[in-house]
Amino acid sequence: MKTKGAMSVSEATKATFDHLAEEFSVLDLIKGVRYRTNRPSLTDGTITRQLRLLREDNIIGYEVIDNQKAIYKKTGISLNGVADKKQLEIFDDPTYHD
Questions:
Q1: Which of 29, 49, 56, 87 can bridge 83 by disulfide, Cβ–Cβ 3.0-4.6 Å?
Q2: Rounded distance between C-alpha atoms, residue 98 and residue 87, angstroms
Q3: Start-to-end C-alpha separation, the chain
Q4: pTM for this structure?
C-alpha cells in the first residue's frame, strides 16, 4: 500500500469514519481524509472506494440514508470493527435460533 502523506488513504478513511457522528456527510469524511493524509487534491472517488472496501471487509458499517445530500449512517460495526451492542443482543435472546 502506497503512502504519500501522514497516513495511508485506508488508515485515514477508517480514522476519520471513527471520529464522525452516527449520521454524517460524505463531504465531511472526504475533508477529514484529505487532512489526515496531507493530500488536498486526493480525489473523492479514491476516498469513497476505500470506504466501500472497509465495509466489504467488515471493518466498518454504514448505509446511505440520503443519496441526494450524501448523508450516511453508521450501522452494525463499532468503531473497533466489532459487532455493535445492538447486533450482539440478538444472541442473548432465548428465542433466537441460528
A1: 87
A2: 13
A3: 38
A4: 0.73
